[in-house]
Amino acid sequence: MEKKKTGISQTGARMPVVLLKSLLVSYLMAGALLLLLALLLYRMQLSAQAVSIGILVIYAVTAGLSGWLAGKGMQDRRFLWGLLTGSLYFCVLAALTLIVNHGLQDVGNHFFTTLMICSGAGMLGGMLS
């Protein structure tokens, strides 16, 4: 017996769920890693440059994790889903930064660099999945 097509493909129906799950896991991981970095800052008196590098590494690792999870969940065009989740990861970070800072005054310095790191790490995670 042949199944009827409903108009929504299997991939399209599970896309929001996979994206939300991958982003949620990556943000939980980012929170834990940022807490660890704060503890290291407190205990070891890290320099501002070491903290900035640590934050960028955390962004790259968690965006890569998000891309990897999205690639595993979607099974096709994994690099594209990884790129999308990395970009969404950055968009949420940028929105939170704008909300906390009440404007664009501190966003300009590393905005493009952080976008490229998050998007590239997400795409790499998707490719590796």
Automatic annotation (TrEMBL):
Q: Which UniProt keywords apply?
A: Membrane, Transmembrane, Transmembrane helix
- Entry keyword Membrane: yes
Q: Which residues cross the membrane?
A: 20-42, 48-70, 79-99, 111-128
**One Pfam family in the UniProt entry:** DUF3792
Recorded hits in InterPro entries, A to Z, give: DUF3792_TM (IPR023804)
Q: Which NCBIfam families match?
A: TIGR04086_membr
Name recorded for this polypeptide: TIGR04086 family membrane protein
- The source organism is Gallintestinimicrobium propionicum
Record lineage = Bacteria, Bacillati, Bacillota, Clostridia, Lachnospirales
